[in-house]
Amino acid sequence: MNPILRNAFRTSAILFVFAIIGTAMMAYTFRQTRPVIEKSEQAEKLALINQVLPKSLYDNDLLAAHRELPADDLLGTRKPTSMWLATKSGQPAGIVLEAIAPEGYSGDIGLLVGISADGVITGVRVTRHKETPGLGDYIELAKSPWVLQFNGKRMEENDKPRWRVKKDGGEFDARAGATVTPRAIVKAVRQALEYFDKHRDELLRTTPVTPS
Amino acid sequence: MITKETFTQLAENGLWKQNPGVVQLLGLCPLLAISNNVVNALSLGLATIFVMAMSSLAVSSARNFVPHEIRIPVFILIIAALVTIIDLVFNAFAHPLYLVLGIFIPLITTNCIVLARADAYASKNHPLHSAIDGLLMGLGLTLVLVMLGAIREIAGQGTLLSGIDLALGPAAKSWIITVLPDYKGFLLAILPPGAFIGLGLLIAGRNWLDMRAKRRAHLQARQAAAQASTA
């Protein structure tokens, strides 16, 4: 065989062997670590959900009561997202849903919103954001308690003006110099409540039906 | 085994002469992105040290089986596989640590200093030497990261070690040092331009120290020569 060709075959065989070994090692590690990682991921998710929906409100296996919600303008979502239905003694107690505030200062702000069956906010947490560090990031609970002011809030008839930041005549606090971020979140939470009102029956139905 | 001279040489290169952060200017992407406070900088630094030592060790161990023409794809393969495995193992068996360093580990794959050391040093040297080289290069990068993080944090927020409670639990909250009380903050230092300006200052500072040392050595040599001629 031509020596150049032989050399090419040899090097590609070596590269191939390295690729096989590398893949095998990764696959092995993946399989060995998967169950442990999955368990801690679930625990983390539940811990986050428990922050927006107090444990005392429900008694079902919340993570198992997971459903997909189709993308919706009120939720600010462009892809199907998750919701979890909480029940107590078989009766619907509330839901936790994912929403997006698309009007943040710097891209989407991911939210987790807990709403009790009677339409009261039980908690809101920011799950991801790219707001300016040191300025707009007070929406994280780790940085400031700002996000706690949603707790216990609800929507009444013609209630929209109340659901604004104080600067715009509403009742939600915002820090001077960084109002774009809270304005986006207040609007997103309000719209999540609107979504809840609109689809209430489907959302709270204990047999899974996705809202149309 | 490693001799004292080799170790000294490796340490000098990693920490000063060939410092990845301020001399080689490699691996700047994570360096500039994560250095907005000391805790982030130190976390990324520790993860980098670990990955660099391991990847240099792995590359050096495989070096005799790798033909010259395909060394770069093979090294990238080794480094990427290794980083993935480290990421998974940390996630599964050292979860508290993973929560702190986890987001930084995938970032390290994008750090070209890892590949640079694999090619420039580990592919030609003994595994033990290579691992120490990786460790010391990582340490050099970490020192720059922490200094940059400290500069940006003090200038930007007037504090040091903010966020340590997120890394080590609420008990560590009392470790946060307020350097400048009632400081209003200086946003530029925290935003990306602050990283470039801060790194520029560090490079200038290092060059200045280097030049001063050279000038002194030169002066001493001249004085010694003058004394020798008068005597």
Give an account of the 3D structure.
The complex is a heterodimer of chains A (212) and B (231). Chain A is of the alpha+beta class and 212 residues long. Chain A folds into two domains: 1-52; 53-204, no CATH class. Helix content of chain A is 35%, strand content 18%. The longest helix of chain A has 50 residues, at 3-52. The mean pLDDT of chain A is 87. With 231 residues, chain B is mainly alpha-helical. Chain B has one domain (4-230). In chain B, strands 1-2 form a two-stranded antiparallel sheet. The longest helix of chain B is centred in the last third of the chain and has 39 residues, at 192-230. Chain B is flat. Chain B starts with a helix and ends with a helix. The chains are: A alpha+beta (212), B mainly alpha (231).
The oligomerization state is: heterodimer
The count of DSSP E runs of length 2 or more, i.e. the number of strands of chain A, is: 5
Task: For the record, give the distance between the C-alpha atoms at the N and C termini of chain B, rounded to a whole number.
Answer: 46 Å
Give the low-confidence spans of chain A: none
Order of helices and strands of chain A, N to C?
HEEEEEH
Structural class by secondary-structure content of chain B: mainly alpha
SS elements, strand count of chain B: 2
Question: Percent of residues of chain A in beta strands?
Answer: 15-25%
What is the H/E order of chain B? Answer: HHHHHHHHHEHEHH
In short:
Chain A has helices at residues 3-52, 180-204, and strands at residues 66-69, 81-88, 91-101, 109-116, 121-128. Chain A is an alpha+beta fold and 212 residues long. The longest helix of chain A has 50 residues, at 3-52.
SSE topology sketch:
The complex is a heterodimer of chains A (212) and B (231).
Chain A: H1 3-52, E1 66-69, E2 81-88, E3 91-101, E4 109-116, E5 121-128, H2 180-204
Antiparallel strand pairs in A: 1-2, 2-3, 3-4, 4-5
Chain B: H1 4-17, H2 20-24, H3 28-34, H4 38-62, H5 71-93, H6 95-101, H7 105-109, H8 112-122, H9 127-157, E1 159-160, H10 164-168, E2 177-178, H11 187-190, H12 192-230
Antiparallel strand pairs in B: 1-2
